[in-house]
From TrEMBL:
Transmembrane segments: none annotated. Its EC number is 7.6.2.8. The keyword Transmembrane does not apply. Gene3D superfamilies: P-loop containing nucleotide triphosphate hydrolases. This is Cobalamin import ATP-binding protein BtuD. InterPro entries: AAA+_ATPase, ABC_transporter-like_ATP-bd, ABC_transporter-like_CS, P-loop_NTPase.
Length: 429
């Protein structure tokens, strides 16, 4: 890490007789953008207030630029840290320019003298946040997104090394959320250090260099987004059943909170043949139900491959645009053989996955998902039609929404089936 601009050491903060933060040690590197994340009531706002010097710790201390911030006078503290508050609803009836000028208060002399530097700091802040066209409007009359920029401008006019933002994207539409965080990132690239409480984990992961995950007043994890946003950490802090993957477009760590409960108590192995996203929902529901799920063969980079990875499933993969080599064929065949049930998703059928379908057609218990007519999905001619006929005749054909129920019926039927098989085997011997 670069030299820390902010150093919180073993911080404890009590408010109203309650310990709100305890044992919190955090370093914020100079020139970095750090996101504070954590559930409601975790202590994010309280930590920001300790960073700004607004709260005095019961134990430990906060240093900003080497100074104990709570020991500085309010003007000196305000020359180090500027806060963009969470609640952007402002009740005072100033115009936008006056609001931004307030940022200069800590720099004015005792007599309120206003010099060229003060005036140019305000103009720079107005230009940087692109609020010039709003400058003469009443701050109460601009939209929430515009007001957010005005308050960032006020913080910029304050000309501090440290910018503290409390949920800067909270009531903003998606476009303004992105614009706001882009602006903060640019300010950091230009030399500011920013700490922001952010509820949206994916925005935090995308924009922040480092995250600090707080839960119940303690730091649960800290580090780069990929180190902090793990499924275990999210489960521990938020009690959320979340899947962590990479966003296919941005490449950032991406968190998806899943609504259904974590693994149910279904037992058995299920192998799924899919591709192009046709298997994603089946993979999720089957693994959430508790089945031991494998999938493949799929191309690397296929959306079903990504889903399987994010769910931690066993995926047989081959490089993009290549057909199954003998190792992949063997891998699929062994999974089909071990499976208590095989599911064939509503896949497109081309030469690439014909081998998958042939392998699936050997399964003892088979569920074939049919949503679109076969003819619309077949790019492999009559050969595919023969394989598909065999699949249909051997398997249970279902709608996409009935896969879990059909698999459960097949797997539970297996107990009787196996017994039956066992009897016939023994009677044969
Ligand atoms: N002045 C106070 N007196 C007593 N308790 C307080 C006071 N201020 C905050 N708290 C409590 O401290 C805890 C942490 O609050 P804080 O606002 O720091 O959490 P947060 O992580 O920012 O939450 P949110 O995401 O909901 O904004 C909460 O339980 C809150 O009720």
């Amino acid at each position: 890490m670069t030299d820390p601009l902010v150093r919180a050491s073993d911080l404890r903060i009590d408010l109203g007789g309650t310990t709100i933060l305890d044992g919190v040690s955090v370093d914020v590197g100079s020139g970095t953008f750090v996101g504070l994340i954590g559930p409601n009531g975790a202590g994010k706002t309280t930590l920001l207030r300790a960073f700004s010097g607004a709260l005095s710790p019961t134990r430990g201390h906060v240093e900003v630029a080497g100074e104990r911030i709570d020991r500085l006078g309010s003007k000196a503290a305000s020359r180090l840290a500027a806060t963009v508050p969470q609640d952007t609803s402002v009740s005072f009836d100033f115009d936008v320019r006056e609001t931004i000028r307030m940022g200069r208060t800590p720099h004015l002399s005792r007599f309120g003298g206003w010099d060229d530097e003060d005036a140019s700091a305000v103009e720079r802040a107005i230009a940087r946040t692109e609020v010039a066209e709003l400058a003469d409007r009443a701050v109460t009359d601009v939209s929430g997104g515009e007001r957010q920029r005005v308050l960032i401008a006020r913080a910029l006019a304050q000309a501090t090394p440290l910018l503290l933002l409390d949920e800067p994207t909270a009531s903003l539409d998606i476009n303004h959320q992105v614009r706001t965080l882009e602006l903060v990132s640019e300010l950091v690239a230009e030399g500011k250090t920013a700490v922001a409480a952010i509820h949206d984990l994916n925005l935090a992961a995308h924009y922040c260099d480092e995250l600090v995950l707080l839960s119940e007043g303690r730091v649960v994890a800290t580090g780069p987004p990929e180190a902090v946003l793990t499924e275990d950490n999210l489960d521990g802090a938020f009690g959320a059943n979340a899947v962590v993957s990479r966003h296919p477009v941005t490449g950032s760590v991406y968190v998806t909170a899943l609504p259904e409960a974590r693994a149910g108590d279904a037992e058995g192995r299920v192998h799924v043949v899919g591709g192009g996203g046709t298997a994603a929902r089946h993979l999720y529901l089957l693994s959430a139900a508790g089945y031991d799920v494998s999938v493949g063969a799929l191309n690397e980079g296929d959306t079903d491959t990504e889903t399987a990875r994010s769910l931690g499933l066993d995926a047989v993969t081959v490089p993009p645009f290549s057909s199954l080599d003998s190792a992949a064929r063997d891998a699929v065949a062994s999974r089909v053989e071990r499976a208590d049930c095989v599911v064939v998703a509503d896949v497109e059928i081309g030469r690439g996955n014909l081998a998958n379908l042939r392998a699936a057609a050997e399964a003892d218990r088979l569920v074939v998902v049919e949503q679109r007519p076969f003819a619309e999905r077949n790019y492999a001619g009559e050969e595919a039609a023969r394989v598909y006929d065999r699949l249909r005749s051997r398997g249970t054909v279902v709608d996409a929404g009935d896969v879990l129920a059909a698999v459960t019926a097949e797997v539970e039927g297996e107990t009787t089936g196996t017994e039956g098989l066992g009897q016939s085997e023994s009677s044969a011997t």
